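User: Please run a holo structure prediction.
Assistant: Happy to. Please share the sequence and the ligand.
User: Here you go; the ligand is glycine.
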Amino acid sequence: MRYHKIDNQFFTNNREAFAKKMEPNSVAIFVSNDEHPRNGDQFFPFRQSSDLFYLSGIEQEKTILMLAPDCPNPKLREVLFVLKTSEHIAVWYGHKYTQEEAKETSGIENVHWTDEMDMMLREAASYSKNIYLNEYEYPKYASDVESGEQRFTKEIKQLYPLHVFERSAPILYHLRLIKSETEIDLIKEACEITNKAFRRILQFVKPDVMEFEIQAEIEHEFTRKRANGHGYYPIIATGENACVLHYIENDKVCKDGDVILFDFGAEYANYSADMSRSIPVNGKFTERQRAVYQAVLRTLDTLTENMLVGKALDDLDKLSKILIEKELISLGLFTEIEVKNQDLKEPLFKKYFMHGVNHHLGLDVHDVGNRNVPLTAGMVFTCEPGIYIPEESLGIRLENDILITENGPVNLMENIPIEIEEIERLMSK
Ligand code: GLY
Ligand code: MN
Ligand code: MN
């Protein structure tokens, strides 16, 4: 692994917390992500299922975790199955976990090869009434491609038709909402690597540079600082491209006088940062760009101050609309009278500000978890207002990652330059 070793007590704690929430007489099974074929004998880079990583730390395909906390056979209470390795596999495909390494990484005593799973599961199932299976339940996610989890669910339901099936996702997503100290440290590291990459590009950007050249600088810094890569595909959007919210082509030339909107975040040990910044290509904002920038920054600051224990995300959403509407009037994009007479079903601000301002952040950039529970200490969210004015070829978004604590919000990106003066100063060096 590129990242520094994670104390296996973290994974042990996560399994214990999950086991505590299981019904008695139950077995839970978690399967790894598949390797996804690309073409010929090539695969897309492997990324472990966030849930399996959270419970085991194992980063390898064909891994299975079985939890049966009250099983009469103590050897079946916690079992990890990993792909059987051999000299042939080691020569052709490189090193795979030995059983000892898998034990050391996960903190699980009972490690077996994956091909031993069927019999051990049969025994655990014979003592159990319920079988917990996992499925990715992020509401916005829909895919035509069958996942390893879905395939496994089909097989197990056929093999054990008389058992009661339970969903693991509600338990896991409840646990993953509140970040432990270990997770907060990993997210902080992802933010710090993102900071280094941002500072690097402040020195690099100048008129006529291509968006992908900037992407290369980011990736250079990510890789040398032990990130797996990006937590999500990066947005490097100059001028009018910044008004396309999911712009990812990153293939245009950055013109003198334009502002570039960046949205990128390093993934460190599978934990993601999520940052947006907007900078002038030539190192100096125009008066108009400065005014729009300050409007977004004021909104970010006020929203962040309101990220308090007990608040609802809905409240922050409503607040963002009020704040941005006021800023848009000050920027002369519409008048107070026009707002008074607006159709409330299609408010005017939507033309310039059309997205939400917070989402959970963690192992996934849009992390799992109920959006309807009040903000609680230990949750991590993004805060990301923006103003997009296509007729001025200008889009500005500013996004920080915020830890909720009993003592108020903590900006995990406080080291990443955001004030205009600092950005201009660093770009002029
Ligand atoms: N980078 C994705 C987002 O900001 O939500
Ligand atoms: Mn983002
Ligand atoms: Mn975001």
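The domain at 181-428 is CATH 3.90.230.10 (Creatine Amidinohydrolase).
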